[in-house]
């Protein structure tokens, strides 16, 4: 995400388009990494922690920059960062109480996929995309909220099962 952040922070012809390119490369390599880890059974406890953490940091950098530049609203950034922080802290708590590192859930992957599209629209910021961006923003809010609900249910279910 560092190259994407560089192109977001600097001005020049096609800089935003280059930022999109690097964001898409980051998303694609992350997906391939996950695919091959599962395919060759190379999933580790460390990987289940560091991969989502790296994703959250990368997304956090992009959303903060887009908020500074006025491309996305502050409340949206607060929602994203708060949700990610809650999920991360809950994961640490579960690990400390149970020794289990819980994997990412499909609802979270769907939410992050919508978030990625929303961020791409925000980076491009073409006026003809405004209505679609607004719609995508609210769909993303819904998927983020739903995924947080699912993660919260799993958190309490895991604690309940551990206490038995």
Would you spell out the secondary-structure blueprint of this structure?
Elements: H1 2-9, H2 15-39, H3 45-68, H4 74-98, H5 106-124, H6 130-163
Helix pairs in contact: 1-2, 1-3, 2-5, 3-4, 3-5, 4-6, 5-6
Summed up, what is this model?
This protein has 164 residues and is mainly alpha-helical.
Descriptive tags:
164 residues, mainly alpha
Describe the structure.
- With 164 residues, the chain is mostly helical.
- It has one domain.
- The chain has six helices and no strands.
- Helix 1 runs antiparallel to helix 2 (15-39) and helix 5 runs antiparallel to helix 6 (130-163).
- The longest helix is centred in the last third of the chain and has 34 residues, at 130-163.
How many strand segments? 0
Strand content: under 5%
Q: How do the helices and strands follow one another from N- to C-terminus?
A: HHHHHH
In terms of per-residue confidence, which ranges show pLDDT below 50 for 5 or more consecutive residues?
none
The number of helical runs is 6
**Mean pLDDT, as a whole number?**
92
What structural class do helix, strand and pairing data support? mainly alpha
Domains, number: 1
Give the radius of gyration: 17 Å
Helix content: over 70%
Largest sheet: none
Overall morphology: globular
End-to-end Cα distance: 43 Å
